[in-house]
Amino acid sequence: MTTTTSAPPVSAGPGPAKVRAWPRTVGVSLTRIGIIVLAAALVELAVELRWATPLQVAPPSIVLPALWDGLTTGNYLSLLGTTLAEVGVAFLCAATVGTTLGYLLWRRPLFGRAYEPLLYALASSPIVLLYPVSLVMFGRTPVAVAVLGFVAGLFPVLISTYQAFRRLDDTYIKVAKVLRLTPGQSFLRVLLPAALPSVLVGLRLGLTLTMLTVIAMEYLANVGGVGAELSLAYLRLRSADMYAVLLLIISLSVTFLFLLNLTTRLVVKR
Amino acid sequence: MNAPTDGAAGTAPALVIADVSKSFGDQTRRVPALGKVSLTVARGEFVSLIGPSGCGKSTLINIVAGLIDGYEGRVTVSGAPLDGPHPSIGMVFQDDSTFPWLSTLQNVEFGMRMAGVNATERRERAMEMLDLIGLRSFADRYPAQLSGGMRQRVALARALAMRPEILLMDEPFAALDEQTRMVLGEELLRLQEELQQTVVFVTHNLGEAVQLSDRVVAMTARPASIKAILEVDLPRPRDSSIVSSDRYGELVAHLWSLLREEAITAFNQRDAAQAGAVR
Ligand SMILES: Nc1ncnc2c1ncn2[C@@H]1O[C@H](COP(=O)(O)OP(=O)(O)OP(=O)(O)O)[C@@H](O)[C@H]1O
Ligand SMILES: [Mg+2]
Prior knowledge:
The complex is a heterodimer.
Chain A: H1 24-48, H2 60-72, H3 76-107, H4 109-123, H5 131-138, H6 142-166, H7 170-178, H8 183-221, H9 226-235, H10 239-267
Chain B: E1 15-24, E2 31-41, E3 46-50, H1 57-64, E4 72-77, E5 80-81, E6 89-92, H2 104-114, H3 119-132, H4 148-160, E7 166-170, H5 178-195, E8 198-203, H6 206-212, E9 215-219, E10 226-231, H7 246-278
Parallel strand pairs in B: 3-8, 3-9, 6-7, 7-8
Antiparallel strand pairs in B: 1-2, 1-4, 4-5, 9-10
Helix pairs in contact in B: 2-3, 2-4, 3-4, 6-7
Family (chain A): Belongs to the binding-protein-dependent transport system permease family.
Domain ABC transmembrane type-1 (chain A): 80-258
Main location (chain A): membrane
């Protein structure tokens, strides 16, 4: 194959043979969008042909306008803001407290060993089911939601930080000592950067759990942002709104993960 | 050449190890790791420690590095008693110790940066070191993009950039393949001619010890004490062609005759320890 125009096209149809290879990422993106569009078209078709009733499945032709209305004239943006604030505050607290406690646990091996199994158990338990406790303590407020989101995100961050420091290469610590680093230098310049990649894994997990818990509690307790709206739409059989809010929630989590991936890539350049 | 110590220190030997011994464990189960060891290393001298594995070489070198305390005996550096990690002692470790989050240049600059050397001088000295170890064109690469041998050279440059009076090397080539190891050995010889650095070098490799050193200290099985000290009378400057000389062969053979018995003892110690563990 050649790109010069004078060469006769090899087994190309009529017209100029322009088989340019796309960058791979473009192909991936196109395929991804294509699948989504195809799925949406199938849903539309299914409703059109009455395989499913509009109550069971709202067709995209209704959901998308509903989403647009909600965003422009409705209260979706403020709902989104509430949820974002809950997730944001909860995650920031989980990240700060989790990394600090994880580090302290490593510095105090006795506590580390004593609490490790307990922490694993907590990290894998459905914290969201504690929502009545949070409601009782903080009332039907976004604060109650954020607190539960914080608790849910805390344990994975704590555990991964503890593990990250435990798995630190002993040689790094020796290098820091031989180069006579101050305790502050040795933490900021050696221990922390060495532990960071594993800590970031925990932060990802923490963010996911915080987000899930926040939205689930909003739904269960009918308080706060998008989760509460989802439960309202469901209870009132407003199927178009329900799907519109679902779309909103999914795009929210996709955005969060995208941002997190981006930061990970920026921080861990190795 | 070396900044911080001068005056009386100029005449004292670089390193004096006097009756140093060390045991690990508590009252109930003491493991003597190091018997009484006394050794004096002159300025500019390259001394190797060689002995059976587990005999206590790392323990000794870590004591000198200030990484282990609670030992008996005295260590003095340029005439002053050792108290924790010493500003004019540098160290290169067996395992990769380059920081993966820093570029080659930043790794070499690291110690100076922490010590507050200003940016211009730091850059200058780091570049000098990169030239010395032949990695200038890799200044902006990260360790993950370097081979194991290159990373070890970066670690060496990081230590040398601090201009230590004494450089400690604990099996720095042990994790590398044979050929890389020979290349780095040759490089170290060349560096040694250029810098006249005082080096204490731990190795398992008889040939490496003879090729590089002015003296080779043969150690006994654990707890290590000094079995004999071999003066290496090969002419300097040396290069790797020295390994084909008769004298080199004789020295290696002699070293092995010193170490053979200790190696067997250490081997049996390990067997016994394993049998003990099984019981
Ligand atoms: N922190 C420690 N606690 C208890 N025992 C230790 C400790 N460090 C070393 N030892 C023991 O002391 C002995 C000497 O260890 P050392 O690492 O100094 O040997 P080595 O000569 O460097 O061995 P190798 O050739 O394998 O590197 C070994 O039996 C080891 O198990
Ligand atoms: Mg050792």
